[in-house]
Specification:
By secondary structure, the protein is an all-alpha fold. It has one domain. Helix 1 runs antiparallel to helix 2. The termini are close together.
Length: about 110
C-alpha cells in the first residue's frame, strides 16, 4: 500500500510543478520557479521509491498517464485552456489505459 501512496505523491508533485511552469515565465519569476524545482525534486524522489516495489514500466505508465490527464484538467479549470471533443476522448482513453493496467494486469503488484 505504501508504494501507491508514494506514487500518488509523485503524481501530485509533478502536476503541481508542471502547473507552476507556465507561471515561472521561463524561470524568470522566483516563487513559481521554486515550485517547479521543488515539485519535480519531490516527484522524482517518490517515483524512485515507488520503483523499488513496482516495475518501472508500470510505474511510468501510471505516473505519466495520470499526470497527463490531471495537467489537462488543471489547465482547463485554472488556466482557461479549452478541450475539444477529440482531446476529451483522448484523455479518457489515457485514463482507461491506466485503469486497465491497474485492475487487470498481472504485472502490477497489489
Amino acid at each position: 500500500m505504501q508504494q501507491w501512496i508514494f506514487l500518488s505523491i509523485a503524481i501530485v508533485s509533478e502536476v503541481a510543478a508542471t502547473s507552476a511552469l507556465k507561471a515561472s515565465e521561463g524561470f524568470s519569476r522566483l516563487w513559481p520557479s521554486l515550485v517547479v524545482v521543488v515539485g519535480y525534486a519531490i516527484a522524482f524522489y517518490f517515483l524512485s521509491l515507488t520503483i523499488k516495489t513496482i516495475q518501472l514500466g508500470v510505474v511510468y505508465a501510471i505516473w505519466s498517464g495520470a499526470g497527463i490527464a490531471l495537467i489537462a484538467l488543471v489547465a482547463w479549470i485554472f488556466l482557461g485552456q479549452t478541450l475539444d471533443v477529440p482531446a476529451i476522448i483522448g484523455l479518457l482513453l489515457i485514463v482507461a489505459g491506466v485503469v486497465v493496467l491497474n485492475v487487470f494486469s498481472k504485472t502490477v503488484s497489489h
